[in-house]
Amino acid sequence: MTAAAERTDDRATTDVLAAAREQVLDRGVGLTEEQVLTVLRLADDRLDDLLALAHEVRMKWCGPEVEVEGIVSLKTGGCPEDCHFCSQSGRFPSPVRSAWLDIPGLVKAARQTADAGATEFCIVAAVRGPDARLLSQVREGIKAIRDSGNNIQIACSLGMLTQAQVDELVGMGVHRYNHNLETARSHFPQVVTTHSWEERWDTLRMVREAGMEVCSGGILGMGETDEQRAEFAVQLAELDPHEVPMNFLIPQPGTPYEQYEPIAGRDALRLVAAFRLAMPRTMLRFAGGRELTLGDLGAEKGMLGGVNAIIVGNYLTNLGRPAQQDLDMLADLKMPIKALSDTL
């Protein structure tokens, strides 16, 4: 790169951070796709400035509280879809095998989640979409959790839905539904071939129209370009979800992505800040892969770089950090945990 080009790049960097301060921090208007791309290409020596700005945006438009969530797999493995990142697909020779969690196990997991300080408990199933058996299990599980005296908020992630299934979940008292778009629309056909990005979008539209909160994010580090990462950020902003979980690829044995290298920590932090600047009012949640990608120090920097929610404990087929370790981190950062009473 020539000296003139470097100066041009420096001016672009300064301009995008100045524009973000006025546009996002002052007015609450998210960055455009072109602006997000510029942010993703910031030099390492501007990363701290970027994270500091993203934290200011989070504090102004979301406040200081952090929402804590736990997740549990009701039905693991044996999924008929071919999501290339997923060890639960029945199409790949991964070590994960199909299994169901019984109702007492679900109640126990909900209690452990609540005892860890979480206000949200998400019931997840590895399926294309729920059948009658699965919906019956979810209904019985929610009733058993409530009968046990646990008032934790219950979310679900059960794949693609019909309108009738959306209505059933509303009737069960599910207050938030997770269905990740996973990646940019332009990159999706390289990640999944057995269903479309548009099918996922349609489920999320029905969920929103039914009055449930929408949770949708994706996995970063699946071979997408910076341009596609910027595309993904603004597509999520257009969806305007209540919550965006940010996952970083954990290469899973037996999947097509098992040889992929984990995303670099600095790139992950740039992504966290960029997504915050694209969606200033959205709950941005640290999810799977942060331990591998960021480690302890990086997780703290992410919490000070735009993140305001976190999954504690284990993920679906991967171990996370002990819940208390994350709770101690939030205490050290003097970040209050959102109270259950505020979410009811």
How would you explain this protein's 3D organization?
With 344 residues, the chain is α/β, with parallel strands linked by helices. The chain has one domain (60-343): Aldolase class I (TIM Barrel), CATH 3.20.20. It contains 12 helices and 10 strands. Strands 1, 2, 3, 4, 5, 6, 7, 8, 9 and 10 form a 10-stranded mixed sheet that branches. The longest helix has 24 residues, at 3-26. It is globular and about 55 Å long. The model is unreliable at 1-8, 314-319 and 340-344 (pLDDT under 50).
Fold topology:
Layout: H1 3-26, H2 33-40, H3 47-61, E1 67-76, E2 99-100, H4 103-115, E3 120-125, H5 132-147, E4 153-157, H6 163-172, E5 176-178, H7 188-191, H8 197-209, E6 213-215, E7 218-220, H9 226-239, E8 243-248, H10 265-278, E9 283-286, H11 290-303, E10 309-311, H12 323-332
Parallel strand pairs: 1-3, 1-10, 3-4, 4-5, 5-6, 7-8, 8-9, 9-10
Antiparallel strand pairs: 1-2
Helix pairs in contact: 1-3, 2-9, 2-10, 3-10, 4-5, 5-6, 9-10, 10-11
CATH class: Alpha Beta
How many strand elements? 10
Give the name of the CATH architecture.
Alpha-Beta Barrel
Which stretches of 5+ consecutive residues score pLDDT under 50? 1-8, 314-319, 340-344
When the domains are counted, the total is 1
What would the principal axes of the Cα set say about the shape? globular
